[in-house]
Amino acid sequence: MEVAALSPTSRSLPLLSTAPTHRLHLLPHRFVSGRRLRLSSRHEGFGCVRDGWGQRHSAPSVEPATQEVGTAVPGDWSGDVIRQRFLEFYAARGHKILPSSSLVPDDPTVFLTIAGMLQFKPIFLGKEPRRVPCATTSQKCVRTNDIENVGRTARHQTFFEMLGNFSFGDYFKKEATAWAWELATKEYGLPAERLWISVFEDDDEAFNIWHNEVGVPKEHIKRMGAEDNFWTSGATGPCGPCSEMYYDFYPERGSSDADLGDDSRFIEFYNLVFMQYNKKDDGSLEPLKQKNIDTGMGLERVARILQKVPNNYETDLIFPIIEKAASLALVSYAKADDAMKTNLKIIGDHMRAVVYLISDGVLPSNIGRGYVVRRLIRRVVRTGRLIGIRGDGHEKPEGAFLPSLAEVVINLSTQIDPAVESRRKSIIAELQREELRFVQTLGRGEKLLDELLDEALLSAGNNGNKPSLSGKDVFLLYDTYGFPVEITAEIAGERGVTVDMKGFEIEMENQRKQSQAAHNVVKLSVGNETEIVKSIPDTEFLGYDSLSATAVVKGLLVNGNPVNEVSEGSEVEILLDRTPFYAESGGQVGDNGFLYVNGGEDRKQTAVIEINDVQKSIGNIFVHKGTIKHGSVEVGKEIDASVDAKLRQGAKAHHTATHLLQSALKSVVGSETSQAGSLVAFDRLRFDFNFHRPLSEEELIKIESLVNQWIGNATHLETKVMALQDAKNAGAIAMFGEKYGEEVRVVEVPGVSLELCGGTHVSNTAEIRGFKIISEQGIASGIRRIEAVAGDAFVDYVCARDNYMRRLCSSLKVKAEDVNGRVDTILEELRATRNEVSSLRSKIAVLKAGSLASKATTVEPQNVRIVVENLGDVDADALKSAAEYLIGTLQDPAAVILGSSPGDGKVSLVAAFSPAVVKMGLQAGKFVGRIAKLCGGGGGGKPNFAQAGGRKPENLPDALEKARTEIVAVVSSSSS
């Protein structure tokens, strides 16, 4: 494969600054990608450059390289260089380089960041004003809907980078297509004859631009249907035709009947979306007033082309991880067979995804995004074990190998996301914990597989069928316990058991469909809400300085629909031009209070609206939600707004206490812990943080003591507004869930805390009065939660606890300092009494069992003595004693199955088999577990003795009868 190449570019060349670009016409020369640009006085290639102030200038044209086609080596086109050249190319054409957003989107409709356009969604919807006319980014993305194709195709990945250029009503099709062609053919040096274009079948405009103005031959332009070349975000919303660029690996095959969907020949590497329509509820399309450009170029795909490797995985973006995995497995990638290479590619891909997700605060868990991380980690671990990696891959068989792979990923991350390096320690620690935890799960999976194979063999023996594992069981082993299907099939085959692969594929397809439905859609909509707020400016917030203000009603909503007037008794949402009410954000709840409508010259109150919540809507518009208690309110009326001062003070105390709590946590347990969520309410605070273990009582006391010490210091808070980058440079911490603009509000408790925060705070820490931790608990894997009270809520809590203690002291007739000792004495007396009662119950059960020995049934041909009985309400310990007595009294061979209903909807079961019965193939653990399922429970144990339980005592008689029937049948069929 021949690929044109440009001159080598230094890896050390810095990216252009994100600050406004200088006016190019004032500079004698400009260097981009290591080559000098010459400024042109003519309008070349539709190019025009905007500087940071919105002024247009002629586009510089790039002098073409003189290097011959096909002489480049992969090092000339590293992934870092390709990314850098893309961003610089568009920066030179007036685009502002913006950083990648987090993989956790600030958007409740999207599970993970799956496209570069996501951070610009509010601008495309018209919900936020554009800050720049056009932008360019390299966005890190995660998609898991095609996880089963990773490693098996040349291009599917879970983690990838999407290079993009975006226009917000600035340029459109002509410039986008021309620049895309110039980037591909001049900047990257791709031969024009290898490039193909697809356009939407009805988009004559795009076809003509590509052919007549760019110069692409007609035979290299394919018209395609809406399924391939018309982008929609959902049932309604912004949409438009697409145009895609493809690279042809085999141009010698000619143009006749060429199929762009042929992955073996073509790869799509650049997608241009012309967002020009709004799709309405009835399916009709109306032109957007502001036409936008949204593009995406897969970095790994372009790297594959320029580095001349057979797939995305063998580019320098991923291959170093693969090489490390191969070394840990003691294999050579170059000499490996296809199966081994596939497994190494899976490891290389998934490791990138988990490292960047954990860096962005997504920790392994069993729900939501955390489950994605856990699933990918488990896939890497089980794949690593499949290819022979043991322990840490070096000398510790009990160690973890993911940290070694993570080190490689982190070393490659510098140009993608510099923040990953700063989180190296916590990322590696989390991966090590999760891997070691999963290795234990794999051990349980091996035990379960052994049990399932035993059951399959036993069931087949009873029914005369061929033993087989069901598809559901195979999927359970795969999905829950991380057992590779190949290993399950191999072990099952060794024991003569087949695997229902068709059933397994059905289960996999069901999961795949659910994953696609949940994770691969970016929802945009243009509806009534957008139309309502178009004429309403952002709400001016006055609440930092005042709890009351006069304002004008700018809009009214009832059930989401705009109205001009609302009368008494109605629920209403009110939009004001200014307000002292805080709208919920950054974890802090919205204010409560009242709005008063005044009429006439005497300003007599004509209406009263009780406000019970305030939320932010599109942009920065505050929505006051409440009930009209008296009178009516109209759009345009002047009102007096009054915040409930007592509740606001509670919120302020708890919000400042949250900042102090975070600082205390970092001081006591380590700076690597970080916020994972918060709630600042009027009566309490809740703080979620990343940590791998419960906090000790001593640590909680230290944290509480530190916070109260800082409160007692009576420190004045300082707040200031500054540039976001200046705040970060000063060390300010971002509050979880908060969205920041270019200017931010910084709240500082001098010497203690410095955070970006738009919330309301006390002016002096002494106003908090006191702080008390109520609870500390785990809410997900790696996520802990502290609940606490401060301010008036702290005083109320302490007083309530004091009252409880007074009553307890009165009941126990002791002083407060003697309560613990008295309670310990009572508990010890209770334990002794319980032990005595249990001993008596066991003796009674044994006495009952003594009478059962004479009732034992003898079953031929081996004279097995069997006892199956219900002992009534005896507890599990007594039932165990009775079974042990019986099996010791009866002569071998003997089998005892006992059940009881000790109360509270419980069932207890026990099985005891003598050695001769065990030799017949009966195992107490498996036998009693199956019987317990009939009572809504389960259990197990050793082959000779086992216990189980259940929750359906009404089913116990039938369960015991089934036990009797099964054991008689097995014993009767056994040969001597």
UniProtKB/TrEMBL annotation:
Binds 1 zinc ion per subunit. It is found in: Plastid, Chloroplast; Mitochondrion. Its cofactor is Zn(2+). Residues 77-800 form the Alanyl-transfer RNA synthetases family profile domain. It holds the Pfam family tRNA_SAD. One of its GO terms (cellular component) is mitochondrion. Residues 816-843 form a coiled coil. One of its GO terms (molecular function) is tRNA binding. GO terms for biological process: alanyl-tRNA aminoacylation. Zn(2+) binds at residues 655, 659, 757, 761. InterPro entries: aa-tRNA-synth_II/BPL/LPL, Ala-tRNA-lgiase_IIc, Ala-tRNA-ligase_IIc_anticod-bd, Ala-tRNA-synth_IIc_core, Ala-tRNA-synth_IIc_N, Ala-tRNA_ligase, Ala_tRNA_ligase_euk/bac, Ala_tRNA_synth_plant. It catalyses: tRNA(Ala) + L-alanine + ATP = L-alanyl-tRNA(Ala) + AMP + diphosphate. Keywords: Aminoacyl-tRNA synthetase, ATP-binding, Chloroplast, Coiled coil, Ligase, Metal-binding, Mitochondrion, Nucleotide-binding, Plastid, Protein biosynthesis, RNA-binding, Transit peptide, tRNA-binding, Zinc. Its main location: plastid. Its EC number is 6.1.1.7. Belongs to the class-II aminoacyl-tRNA synthetase family. Alax-L subfamily. Monomer. Catalyzes the attachment of alanine to tRNA(Ala) in a two-step reaction: alanine is first activated by ATP to form Ala-AMP and then transferred to the acceptor end of tRNA(Ala). Also edits incorrectly charged tRNA(Ala) via its editing domain. Consists of three domains; the N-terminal catalytic domain, the editing domain and the C-terminal C-Ala domain. The editing domain removes incorrectly charged amino acids, while the C-Ala domain, along with tRNA(Ala), serves as a bridge to cooperatively bring together the editing and aminoacylation centers thus stimulating deacylation of misacylated tRNAs. This is Probable alanine--tRNA ligase, chloroplastic. It comes from Urochloa decumbens. The lineage of its organism: Eukaryota, Viridiplantae, Streptophyta, Embryophyta, Tracheophyta.
